[in-house]
Write a structure and sequence with these properties.
about 120 residues; about 0% strand; mainly alpha; elongated
Length: about 120
């Protein structure tokens, strides 16, 4: 069953160990990042502490805007969309957190659609 050539045996062992390591890493990242809310709690905590746009009264979810918006400007109902619309005025911590999640979403979208492994 095993090939007689030792180099083939080593290659097969290497291939099997790489596959097992890949499966273990994919399962661990799924357990840690998808089913554990700690990553999302920490990022939400940092956003609420570091971002003054989230503390203003205009971005409270469910509250209607006080007046008509200026022409050509969107008033988002979602506070995250409000942060994305005001990207240049956000703090560095907010831009890093939003950049991480948007990049993760885009990479996952592109890799999953092309049948590449993505956790």
């Amino acid at each position: 069953m095993w090939p007689l050539d030792p180099s083939r045996k080593e290659v097969l062992g290497f291939a099997v160990s790489c596959r097992v390591l890949t499966l273990v890493l994919q399962v661990l990242t799924r357990f840690l990042c998808s089913s554990s809310p700690i990553v999302y709690w920490f990022s939400a905590h940092l956003l609420l502490d570091q971002e003054p746009l989230l503390r203003s009264l205009e971005t409270v979810p469910g509250k209607p805007p006080a007046g008509d918006p200026p022409p050509g400007q969107k008033v988002p109902r979602n506070s995250i969309m409000g942060l994305l619309y005001n990207w240049k005025t956000c703090s560095l911590v907010t831009r890093c957190i939003l950049g991480y999640f948007v990049t993760y979403w885009l990479l996952g979208l592109l890799l999953h659609c092309n049948w590449l492994p993505w956790t």
